[in-house]
Amino acid sequence: MTVPTPPWEKNEQEPKRPAKVPLSRDRIVDAAYVVLDREGYHRMSMRQVAAELGVAVSALYAHVQNKEELFKLMYERLFVGAGLPEPDPVNWMEQVKDFARAGRERLRAHRDLAWISMQHVPFTPELMPNVERLMAILRSGGLPDRVAAIAGDLLSTFLEGFTLEESTWEQRFKASTPEEWAEVMEQMESYFRDLPADDYPNLTAMAPYMTGETNDYRFELGLDVILRGLASYIDYPDGVQATVKTFDDETRSGSVYLDDGTEVPFPAAAFDAGPLRLLRPGQRVNIVLTDGVISFITLGTFPVP
């Protein structure tokens, strides 16, 4: 016969259950990220988030209205601590690059975050300070307001599209070894290289570069292309120094490199507006940019009007 435990000792012998951690928005977002990494954006559900927390799905709705609000909270969490420095007019391009690099790392921190980011805009009380600072950096570099206003969205579109492609391919080949992935890249290069050269002379010539670059290289190149394009819209009414890249004496047109590396073409009208008869590659020149177009060009030792 089993002797029952005396009531005055029962509480001491029974193990105490750990206190339940109260449900909160932060805990729900934490669990949602776990589910997102496991299931992906398109398969994620509120029921799965509730199961991750060990609660009934109805308990979630005391803290979030629906899955769309949960995605919004996940999006806002993405930018926590993403402060931007004070604008530096001299180094504004590098500041924007650092912002984009950090954004890429944040989007890559969890699977399919780019899908969530693409469906939201950062115009919330929590995120507006970041938007304000980014606009200040772009304007400090001399970008016209009309261009700077679009530039922020352009950068976001590039970031989201690039990281979405990265995430998609990583999921597709997540079970592959580095050797297997290298074999896939070799197959792609061989495909381009073996195309009929008469029909595809450019693709066959470029075969080593079509698939041979790393994602980091592709990202940096894309970022550089965007920023150089934005920089071409900066007006320098008092003239700016540049270096001649090309000049065609028949068309009296060519192109120059700005000191930040941006290549800008100049038309015959800009050459004819100055006192010159000839230009040589490598010469230093003074130019005037108007609405992103060179309207006047002369030697670096000559003044601009």
UniProtKB/TrEMBL annotation:
<dbReference type="GO" id="GO:0045892">
    <property type="term" value="P:negative regulation of DNA-templated transcription"/>
</dbReference>
<keyword id="KW-0238">DNA-binding</keyword>
<feature type="domain" description="HTH tetR-type">
    <location>
        <begin position="22"/>
        <end position="82"/>
    </location>
</feature>
<keyword id="KW-0805">Transcription regulation</keyword>
<dbReference type="Pfam" id="PF02909">
    <property type="entry name" value="TetR_C_1"/>
</dbReference>
<dbReference type="InterPro" id="IPR050109">
    <property type="entry name" value="HTH-type_TetR-like_transc_reg"/>
</dbReference>
<keyword id="KW-0804">Transcription</keyword>
<dbReference type="InterPro" id="IPR004111">
    <property type="entry name" value="Repressor_TetR_C"/>
</dbReference>
<dbReference type="GO" id="GO:0003700">
    <property type="term" value="F:DNA-binding transcription factor activity"/>
</dbReference>
<feature type="DNA-binding region" description="H-T-H motif">
    <location>
        <begin position="45"/>
        <end position="64"/>
    </location>
</feature>
<feature type="compositionally biased region" description="Basic and acidic residues">
    <location>
        <begin position="9"/>
        <end position="21"/>
    </location>
</feature>
<dbReference type="InterPro" id="IPR009057">
    <property type="entry name" value="Homeodomain-like_sf"/>
</dbReference>
<dbReference type="GO" id="GO:0000976">
    <property type="term" value="F:transcription cis-regulatory region binding"/>
</dbReference>
<protein>
    <submittedName>
        <fullName>TetR/AcrR family transcriptional regulator</fullName>
    </submittedName>
</protein>
<dbReference type="InterPro" id="IPR001647">
    <property type="entry name" value="HTH_TetR"/>
</dbReference>
<dbReference type="InterPro" id="IPR036271">
    <property type="entry name" value="Tet_transcr_reg_TetR-rel_C_sf"/>
</dbReference>
<dbReference type="Pfam" id="PF00440">
    <property type="entry name" value="TetR_N"/>
</dbReference>
<feature type="region of interest" description="Disordered">
    <location>
        <begin position="1"/>
        <end position="21"/>
    </location>
</feature>
